[in-house]
Write a structure and sequence with these properties.
485 residues, alpha+beta, Beta-Lactamase, Helix Hairpins, 5-stranded mixed sheet, 55% helix, 17% strand
Amino acid sequence: MKFRFIFQRIKRKGSVTLSPTNSTNLSLKKEAGTLLKKLKITLMGSLTLLWFIHALVDTYLFHQGDFSKTIFTLNFHEFWMYLIIILFFAIIYAFSSFIIKKQIELDNIIKTSEERYLRLLESSNDLFSSIQDGIAILDKEFNIIHINPTLKRWYLYKKPIVGKKCYELYCNQKKVCNDCPNLGFINQKEIISKVYPKSDEKGNGIGWIEVFSFPLFDQKSSDIIGIIHYLKDITEKIEAEQLIIEENKKLSELNKFRKNIITRVSHELKTPLNSIQSATQHLLTSYRNEISPETLQFIDIIYKGGVRLTKLVENILDIAKLESGRLFLNKERTNFIEIIKNCIDEVSFFAIKRNILLKSYLDQEIYLNIDPIRIEQLIINLLSNAIKNTPSGGEVIIKTLENNNHVDLQIKDTGIGILKEEEETLFQKFGKIERFGKNLGIDNEGIGLGLYISREIVQLHDGQIIVDSKGRDQGSTFTIRLALD
């Protein structure tokens, strides 16, 4: 193979020492001059020897040994014979000179090309040796024919490496791997990789190596003549991934533990809170006339605190169910308008207390396939928010709009409104909007769970909750959109 010859040649020679091109040219020119001189001497000697032999023959055969007559009495035929011979030798000299010069030029070109080729090989060898990752050259039968120093260092205990099959080196087996990366580009026509464990001479695992296979093609036929393996040590990456998996597992267990604790504590809180609420409500209704106004005021504070805590516990339990996927809907065909009216009645006392006027524009009846308890919780959340965020003397308008495939419940207030930057956190968990700086005349109680739960309830019904506000003191409109049957 061509690449086998290249690497073996470099390996034998080590580093290639090259002479400058100018020195090579001078040497070739000197050699050409010497050859031409030798050719000239040879031709002149041959011509002289030929003339001398002819003169001897002519003298003794035709002039009885009178050598002077042969020299000075050339006849017509002898003159032209000598002239033709001289021209013949001149032509031979000229043609030979041309051949020698062309040969010298070709040798010069060949030597220059060889120098460039060897320089390229030397540079390639330097690059090949300086790569920090492993490189291996294989033939078509998966035999390793060359490796770089990095790969040699990784598998030093498996000497000799050259001559082994790649699967013998990487995974100590005598047959091709089932998911061999070499077969990836041969069979599947794509570059794939495989991760192999790296071990020491005792077989103890010390890391991981990922092997990428690339084909070597013949430039003329485009046939695969070999394989290049690029090996990357991914031990740190694998260890980091394993650490992340372990940490995620621990976090998942902690999160599960947290949810269980929250659920357990919330359930345990409901019983004493219900007792506090029931006891204080009984005192406020049955013993109002027997208790002093100052005491009644404290009992009322306890009762309101119990209501708020109960609401908070219920919200926390709902969030725990949502996060664990245990909040299930009990859908039934229900009159949506009847649920809205019940919600308005429930918040009406709160609206009167804050001097908020409730206006409703509802259809006679709209039947939907919904969970009435959860939809009621959703509507009460939105109505309570609208009342709390509207200053005294404002209005909350409740309206239903029926379309071809859905129904909209609009809850519009004339309250403080919502800014664009506030909309981003409106439906987030604990996304309560804090408004400070002046007396806005609104109720800022709550921890920011109501709207988060409301959005989740709407989405469980495959619906939408839409917010529209023109800005501060421009009011806001919340629209619940549910699909019609």
